Write the structure tokens for this entry.
Amino acid sequence: MKTEDFQKLKDKIEQELKITEDNVMDKSIQLSNLYSMVLKIYSKELRALKEKQLEKDKTFGELYLHYRHKFDYNVETKAEAETYIKADPKFYQVALEFVQIEVQVNFLEKTLTHIDNLGFRIKNYVDLKKMKLGLM
């Protein structure tokens, strides 16, 4: 997901999760729809993360072979090869994309947990209101 699309999604989720005394009942009904939407996006992004991990591993392997066996300078140790690999623009780009997707996946995981917990918080709020009104 592009950074600007991710920012729009975050803004939308933030708006959807705002609960006030006036909208608490509507929000309790809408939570399952929001959860489903976020879960769908999470699944897609998790797949993208796993694919990027594979790409990152493949790039690392190709560059490791290059720096250990085909490089002009004699790279003798694994640590030395890793230093060259991590400085390589090709690896850096793949690693950067991996980190960006990882941040998005972590946000979506935490959002799903928050939505899940929000249902309990709304229930507690409704129960508290009932107690204050003497209905319990």
